[in-house]
Amino acid sequence: ELDLYIARSRDNIRRYLDFITYRNNYLATISYLYVKSSFLKAEQNLKDYENFLKDSDIDSAEKSLNKANEIYNEVMNRKKDYDNIMNDFSNSSYNQLKEYSKSFERYKSTIEEILNLNKNIKFAYDAISNIKFTIDRYKNQADSAFNEAVKFFNNKQYDQAMGKFKESKDLYLTILTRNKSKEIYDRVDRIDKYLKEIDDILYYRDIQVADDYYTKSKISFYKNEYENAKNLIEKADELYKKYNEENPLITELKERIN
Fold it and tell me: Residue 246 gets which letter from DSSP?
């Protein structure tokens, strides 16, 4: 009877230890999955950040990065329970048992993944900070050139205005290679409208000047002032050619003078 009692006791102890082992591994697995689910969400948001950055969408990239960092903090909170469970294992003889080896390996791998995630998030913040600094520098220069251009335009200094508008547009387009911002697109559209208006103003101004040259050339021709007539008609012809146009009256007078 004693032998039977001892055998049953050993069997009960073995079953109890098997239960404890199962329970502990189960708790470790649940904690792992709890941490891993948040980790994967943070990792996905970090990938979204990288994709947005490649597409030069800084605003969306920053939102995704902030979300990744927010979820990372959630990961760290969930990790506390996981740490406690695994620390209990480490502080006992469990870490010597092969039945717990997978739990320990998975825990170690998870810790490394979390450390790398934290490192990548910090690196991403540094990167986006540098990009935003560069964008702000270009934008300040572009805004300054644009404001100067508007002043020239309002003062009817159209040649200077065109130069400044083109300078500011080039700077804004440089920004768009880094950040596809609606604000910058709208500013470029506004500049294009200014440039179109200036083109029209300069065209009519130059054509009026060309017609005036033609009239003066014609007067000089009838006064037998052929050299002066030739210089004036050449100037008139150059202004028309500037816009890839041709005035038949100018062509006819050039032939008569020459």
Answer: -
